[in-house]
Design brief:
Layout (H helix, E strand, L loop, with lengths): L10 E3 L6 H10 L7 H30 L10 H9 L3 H19 L6 E5 L3 E9 L2 E5 L8 H13 L4 E5 L10 H10 L3 E3 L4 H9 L9 E4 L3 H10 L4 E4 L5 E6 L5 H12 L6 E6 L2 H17 L4 H10 E5 L3 H11 L3 E5 L3 H5 L7 E4 L5 H6 L25 E9 L1 H17 L3 H28 L1
Parallel strand pairs: 1-11, 4-5, 4-7, 5-6, 7-8, 9-10, 9-12, 10-11, 12-13
Antiparallel strand pairs: 2-3, 3-14
Helix pairs in contact: 2-7, 2-8, 3-6, 4-5, 4-6, 5-6, 7-8, 9-10, 9-11, 15-16
């Protein structure tokens, strides 16, 4: 195993070498920085104050922490309009195209309600309805980009959630970035509020008066937002970003070293929490990628975030063959899997655990981050084993319904009572038996009535 040194940005691991298993287990464990006790206590205090004090507590916190004295939290329509007008036409067009493509992708898979009927008077099915109100909450540090917002709001807009709210970060003067306001408008956001961070999550979870209570909060990236999610789980629904950012790029002989290096650097721009992994079975390709990283670092100017990320979480794994590379990628279950291989379609069919798959040499992850169509997956830490990308399903409720007429209950009542007995739930069995008794009485009365007519 070779450590990072000199001009080599990626630490190289090789299966079979001494220490590989321990290093690989550490990579898969994703030991992200845990919040301190004081950070958790700080968020808990904010949540408690806002729950008890509503708008007054919220204004007090924003005044002391952000230095803003807000008469109202909701952004006035005139200010929203002015922000949109400040966006250059070319940027507006690019954001509009991104919103169009993302919305079209989401609309192709909207589930519908359905019902089935059975002989004897049984009917059952599923009703699908959008949530009534959702809020997208950005970190107070302003990590959310315009395309992040479009990807979070568009699925809700695609299923016609009646109220889509956005808690936006502001500058020291209380202004929201124009590109965020433009993104909010074209993505279908109905109202924008001048607050962000855990206090916004708490306000929407409980409702404060000026801020309505919502059914679900869509989180942006930020450690304080993750703390708020843990503190308010069960009070309001959550979806959105979670865990560190991560990419796993699998490359074979067809890969272009410069392109591979560029994709790794692009991901490393996310900062120190971003985990960047290259897996290949070609030593020569790995060497060329390392050289390209050095060259592109020098030519790109200021890349402080990328340098920090690669220095702490940049890894290359040199395997014996492509099959081993893919097996390791499957175990790792990355947020983003890039297949820089000769036959990406056939290789992708073997993948079970990946949040997003970018197939082929002309599909850089950047297109997925901005306007390809699918909402970018933000769930690192191995969550790709059991989670999916943000989509319309996150903004829909599925309600199952069932109705039995007397003949159907008579048909299935005995089996229902038997299963209740097996489950040691006599009350369940009794609730069926009482109804069966009435059905039997009614049947006897009908028979008696027919006999009397004869």
């Amino acid at each position: 195993m070779t450590s990072k040194a000199g001009a080599k940005w990626l630490e190289v691991l090789k299966p079979g070498d001494s220490g590989f298993e321990k290093a690989w287990d550490s990579l898969c464990a994703r030991q992200a920085a845990q919040p301190t006790e004081s950070q958790v206590a700080d968020v808990a205090e904010r949540v408690s104050q806002i729950r008890a004090g509503g708008d007054r507590a919220l204004r007090s916190w924003i005044r002391s922490a952000r230095g803003l004295d807000l008469d109202r939290f909701e952004l006035p329509q005139e200010e929203w309009d002015q922000g949109c007008e400040a966006v250059e036409a070319s940027d507006r067009a690019a954001l509009g195209k991104a919103a169009m493509r993302i919305r079209e992708f989401q609309r192709k898979r909207v589930p519908s309600s359905w019902e089935m009927r059975e002989e004897g008077g049984g009917s059952m099915g599923q009703r699908v309805r959008p949530l009534s109100r959702v809020a997208i909450v950005a970190s107070a540090e302003g990590f959310m980009t315009a395309t992040d917002l479009i990807m979070k709001a568009s699925p809700a807009s695609a299923v016609e959630v009646p109220e889509i709210l956005f808690a936006a970060p502001t500058d020291s003067e209380g202004r929201v970035r124009p590109e965020l306001l433009m993104a909010a408008r074209i993505a279908g956001v109905h109202r924008v509020y001048k607050l962000a961070g855990p206090e916004a999550v708490a306000a929407f979870a409980y409702g404060t008066g000026d801020l309505p209570r919502v059914d679900k909060v869509v989180l942006g990236e930020g450690s304080e937002l993750e703390i708020a999610r843990n503190a308010l789980s069960g009070v309001v629904g959550f979806c959105g970003d979670s865990g560190p950012r991560e990419i796993c790029l699998v490359a074979d002989k067809s890969a272009q070293p410069a392109w591979v290096a560029a994709d790794l650097l692009a991901h490393a721009e996310s900062g120190g929490r971003a985990q960047t992994i290259l897996i290949t079975h070609l030593k020569g390709l790995l060497t060329k990628v390392q050289d390209q990283l050095v060259r592109q670092m020098k030519n790109a100017g200021e890349l402080g975030h990328a340098e920090q990320s690669l220095a702490t979480a940049g890894t290359a794994i040199l395997t014996p063959n492509l099959e081993t590379s893919m097996a390791l990628a499957e175990i790792y279950a990355p947020e983003k899997l890039v297949l820089a291989v000769e036959s990406p379609e056939s290789v992708a069919k073997t993948v079970l655990n990946a949040g997003e798959i970018f197939m082929g040499h002309y599909t850089p992850p950047a297109v997925g981050a901005y306007l390809a169509g699918p909402a970018t997956y933000r769930g690192g830490g191995g969550r790709a084993r059991f989670e999916s990308a943000l989509g319309i399903e996150d903004f829909l409720k599925r309600t199952h319904f069932v109705k039995f007429e007397p003949p159907k209950l008579r048909e299935l009542g005995a089996e229902t009572m038997r299963l209740a007995e097996l489950a040691d739930r006599p009350g369940h069995g009794n609730s069926v038996e009482l109804r069966l008794q009435k059905i039997r009485r009614a049947r006897r009365e009908r028979e008696q009535a027919r006999e009397s007519e004869l």
